[in-house]
Amino acid sequence: LWGWGGSLIPTGGRLPAGGPAQPLILSGVNMWLHYYHQLATAAHDVAWLRRAVPSANVIRLVGLYWNDEDPEKGMECATEDASQGYLDPACVAVLDRLIAEATAAGLWVILTARAHYIADDDLEGDDLWRSPTLRRRFLAMWGWVAARYSSYQRIAGYEILSEPRTRETAPEHVSSLMRDGCDAVHARDPRALCVVGPAPYYKVFNFDERILLDRENVLYTFDFFVPWALVTADTGKGDTATFPGTFPCGDVYLSWWRDYCGSKDQSVRVDAGWIRNAIRSLPHALSSRHNVPVYCNQWGVKGELWADHGRLAYARALLDAFVASNISSTYWIWRSYPKDGRPLGQPVWGFELVHNSGFNGRQSAAWVYEHRAGLEGIDVEMSGVLRAKLPMTEEIPTEPLPPPPPPSLPPSPPPPPPR
């Protein structure tokens, strides 16, 4: 990638304005809008991130929850109101605030849509792959969003659909939705990257030519939670799993094991060399063949995988592989939901870098006083790895940037065509 001012273009393209370009690797963390909105302590997350990981330069903001959550359990943004881009103004207000904070702090933002209920395969056809109405509204939403934030600097890109869940839709139909989404955002904000990846779930083993689109300003993305059983500390081996370690081929390559092994139970040694080769032979190979930028939108290792069992060694090896292959990445995840009673500083946490032992900002003063010894803290070990290994590929301003102008007010979408 090359960065200049408030926009990005892929390597080899032309800058939107004159001036020297600087090579850029996007490196940072994922943030989940719902936690930022729900937890009072999250109000300082941008500043905390800047202190904890100074070399981080991007936030992947999972914030467009569109047919994604039960409104009674989480934050749902989809509405029936075309004049507001089919988005709840309350969601948009929280997005405005966090995007403004992040970009003013010198961070790039990748704005991501998540659509749990309609990105899967629905037997009744009520999903993005089969419903023309849902698809039309979804694309109108993206056009509205891109128009709104087109006046902001440091919008790195718009991620059309996080982890498309479908296993039944042909790859060309998945790419068709991604292409239409890119058309919608680039019609309103041509300076930003469009971020797309493969179904199902952005699996790296499906990261091939079938995801490529016929345009330049696209960032191609994948997940890397490999081996899944190791990085989630869900190995079925108790606390004996380690990195480096040996795993059944099916645990490493999942349903793609036939492409790599003679049997599902064949042993595979997973170490730094294996990680380096996996990154070079899959995402880096696609990038090299077609001169396109690639990005790992999610990777991580749960805190339950103890440091002396290889948690930090795995993280270092993967970040080294990303940097060697010029691959951008964002760690999963900055913070999660409060986990009542878990002690800070102990290997009992998930992927989250911010550990919250139950404080949500709404308890009484007496409760806070009683629990004051350990309410919230940072994962010192993993944040230390990120601080040491994320590449410093641009100077992050130490003084806040001027606040962005008011969001552009996109026109109302045209009425639907007659049936």
Describe this structure in words.
The chain has 12 helices and 15 strands. It has helices at 33-38, 45-52, 89-104, 132-149, 171-188, 228-231, 249-253, 272-281, 283-290, 311-324, 365-370, 380-389; strands spanning 2-4, 7-9, 22-23, 27-32, 58-65, 108-114, 155-159, 193-196, 218-224, 245-248, 267-270, 294-299, 328-331, 354-356, 376-378. The strands form 4 sheets. Strands 4-5-6-7-8-9-12-13 form an 8-stranded parallel beta barrel, surrounded by 5 helices. Strands 2-1-3 form a 3-stranded antiparallel beta sheet, with no helix packed on it. It has a two-stranded antiparallel sheet with strand order 10-11. Strand 12 (294-299), helix 10 and strand 13 form a beta-alpha-beta unit.
Give the key terms.
alpha/beta, three-stranded antiparallel sheet, disordered C terminus, 15 strands, eight-stranded parallel barrel, 29% helix
How far the N terminus sits from the C terminus, by CA atoms, comes to 43 Å
Number of helices: 12
Percent helix, as a range, is 25-40%
Low-confidence stretches: 12-20, 410-419
Beta-strand content estimate: 15-25%
For the biggest β-sheet, the strand order reads: 4-5-6-7-8-9-12-13
The major β-sheet equals: 8 strands, parallel, barrel
| Radius of gyration, CA atoms, in whole angstroms | 21 Å
Instruction: Give the H and E element order.
Output: EEEEHHEHEHEHEEHEHEHHEHEEHEH
> Which shape, going by the Cα principal axes?
globular
